[in-house]
Amino acid sequence: MNEQAEVETVKQVALSFPDRARQIVIETPEHYSAAAGFLKEIKACRKRIADVFGPIVKAAHEAHKRAKAAQTEADDPLDQAEGLIKGAMVSYDTRQAEVASQRQIEAEAAARRAEEQRVIDQAVALEQAGEVEAAQELIAAPVVAPVVMVESATPTVEGISIRAVWQFQVTDPNLVPREWLIVDEKKVGAYVRAVKAQAFIPGIKVFPVRSMSARAG
């Protein structure tokens, strides 16, 4: 039997199993044993499918690996070049952002000084006009400097964008609030599987989940 014929045969055999399973009723020990036999038939059929499709899947996987390796080899120089130029562009943008930030700080300070001087001049004028109380209220009021925006010198280029991804580093685990901590589920699971019913961890419920396995027989 050729490969394609074997494939079609095992597919047809497998198609019959769902309907057979729906017809099985388990109400007696004999029914249970019969169902176990049917389960073993499923395992045997599954093994046959693996035997038939195994060489096909392996050949396809090997072909896929060869193609991916060839693609990676062709793409590697571009990946290297992209990494170099992106690094240089991000470095430039970072420097320009730092320059713009410093200029904004200086511009905001200058704007605040100008606003403070304007308020003083206005208060002096009010006092000279005899409006001493108004002058005092003006001086006592908080100075609100105008908002100053200084843009980065990095040009805007269509299709190119830079975004900041905020990250973190734990410097002292003992200071981290409880709401930011998580249970080590991997460690808990290993402990529960090891000691089973004797496992005890405050705040954690331990219980079994039953499942079934079967061999082809």
Number of domains as seen in the coordinates:
1
Q: In angstroms, what is the radius of gyration?
A: 38 Å
Low-confidence stretches: none
Elements, N to C (H/E): HHHHH
Could you tell me the number of beta strands? 0
Question: Average pLDDT, to the nearest integer?
Answer: 92
- For the termini, the CA-CA separation is 26 Å
User: What is the makeup of the main sheet?
Assistant: none
Task: Please name the defining characteristics of this protein.
mainly alpha; 217 residues; 5 helices
What's the arrangement of secondary structure elements?
Blueprint: H1 3-15, H2 17-22, H3 29-128, H4 132-140, H5 185-195
Helix pairs in contact: 1-3, 3-4
What do these coordinates show?
- It is a single chain.
- The chain has 217 residues and is an all-alpha fold.
- The chain has one domain (3-151, 162-198).
- Helices cover 64% and strands 0% of the residues.
- It is built from five helices and no strands.
- Helix 1 (3-15) crosses helix 3 and helix 3 (29-128) runs antiparallel to helix 4.
- The radius of gyration is 38 Å and the shape is elongated.
- The mean pLDDT is 92.
